[in-house]
Amino acid sequence: ETARITLHPELTIGAVDPRLYGSFIEHLGRAVYGGIYEPDHPAADEEGFRTDVLELVQELNVPIVRYPGGNFVSGYNWEDGVGPKEERPRRLELAWRTIETNQFGTNEFMAWCRKAHTEPMLAVNLGSRGLDAARNLVEYCNHPAGTYWSDLRRRHGYPEPHKVKVWCLGNEMDGPWQIGHKTADEYGRLAVETAKVMKWVDPTIELVACGSSNRKMPTYPQWEATVLEHTYEHVEYLSLHTYYGNRNGNTANFLAKSLDMDRFIAEVAGICDYVQAKKRSKKKLYLSFDEWNVWYHSNAADRQLEPWQIAPPQLEDIYTFEDALLVGCMLITLLKHADRVKIACLAQLVNVIAPIMTANGGPAWRQTIYYPFYHAARYGHGQALHLAPGSPVYHDDEFDAVPYLEAVATYDEAGEVLTVFAVNRHLEEPLPLVGDARHFAGYRVVEHITLTHPDLKATNTRECPDRVVPQANGNATLQEGRLEALLPAASWNVIRLA
Ligand code: AHR
């Protein structure tokens, strides 16, 4: 059976916000220490940043990076991480049960962002702290000079304000695991009062309120409605988080998990619109999907970890080829909601459930999931296009009918470039794809990149970093307005037309 799509320049979903390709660095495991920062590493620069990692982050084209957590932020005193390094305290870090040395903090992160060609997205602590620490941090980062906190920043060696634009009002405050977990009303009240003063310090900032930690939370979706009742007029975005795993060894079901993500986005958008209606507001709320990925391989190892170590390996998922396929489906899902999702952060960036891995003192390499993200961040710009797809389906107990084809396109009108992103979920058979591309007269196939592997469990490792890599070997053709391609069994495809 053939899958069909329609490519039409006016079938637009919305403009793709480049921040859809954001990522996340938390003070957790070896993300910071041994990941982006390792002063003793042979490739470290004068600030202690690993230049090999910086090169990979630049290659990945990440426009925004969330920091410093995650669960970590809910116990963080940001003042511990600024000023002379020798005076910074070591603290028990209760979210991940380690010791935090504070040798890397807000200013180092800002310096790293500049070198990585990315923008910071800072989270404030609404777990153990609140309004006062948050407004002081905005003053420290964004106020030019002439006040206690801005002058302290200048004394710390940063004369220019950091101009941090996007701020998260806490992290996963609906989760009982969170330091300072709150009810929706408690969080909503604290979030709105914090939002008000943060914007009084700097009215140009944008704020993200915490939505649910995932769609299965018992407080979902009432959490969203209650939080927005309090915060609607004071924030720009509501957050969503989700992680998936193939715990039962059922790959057909695993590859369908992006359908859960799709539902989640549609539902949360609906709740935003419900609160907008209730408030008779003119304002539309957007979504920040600021944690998403596959996460399960490292769960058992993490349960065995000795507490109170400094930067031990934690959440070090070694990703398989099939994980890359689901990450591809999740990227397509985000693009299908480009009208609503303006920010998204692959969680995370280095070592901790990450596309980039390092060895302490050793090399850095690309995991399997690096590649679909790299392709989307590089080519997925302009307008996202509805493809009105028709695809054969398979049955799954959780999702009922699952289309073999998952696909979206982006159209960059200015550059006259059209890119089709497609996953074939069929594990054994190639999927013939036919596209009606009559409205793209004169276009030709620039390349058809595929990511395939005969072993769904294949990984990229330090010893063998290039086992799973993309190849420009697809067979897409475009003739007289008809796009044809055979999508290999279990494959990620990028068909670039210009
Ligand atoms: O990304 C890992 C963790 O997942 C984050 O710290 C937390 O926000 C989420 O539960």
**Which percent bin holds the helix content?**
25-40%
Mean pLDDT across every amino acid position: 98
Low-confidence stretches: none
For the largest beta-sheet, the strand count, sense and barrel status come to:
8 strands, parallel, barrel
Global geometry: globular
Structural class: alpha/beta
Would you report the number of β strands?
A: 24
Task: List the topology elements.
Elements: E1 3-6, E2 12-15, E3 22-24, H1 51-60, E4 64-67, E5 91-93, E6 98-100, H2 106-116, E7 119-124, H3 131-142, H4 148-155, E8 166-169, H5 184-201, E9 206-209, H6 222-231, E10 237-244, H7 251-255, H8 258-278, E11 286-294, H9 299-303, H10 321-336, E12 341-346, E13 356-358, E14 364-366, H11 370-379, E15 383-385, E16 393-396, E17 400-403, E18 405-412, E19 417-424, E20 431-436, E21 445-451, E22 477-479, E23 482-487, E24 491-497
Parallel strand pairs: 1-20, 3-4, 3-12, 4-7, 7-8, 8-9, 9-10, 10-11, 11-12
Antiparallel strand pairs: 2-15, 5-6, 13-14, 15-18, 16-17, 18-19, 19-24, 20-23, 21-24, 22-23
Helix pairs in contact: 3-4, 3-5, 5-6, 6-8, 8-10, 10-11
Bound molecules: alpha-L-arabinofuranose.
Residues 26, 69-71, 171-172, 213, 291, 347-348 line the site of alpha-L-arabinofuranose.
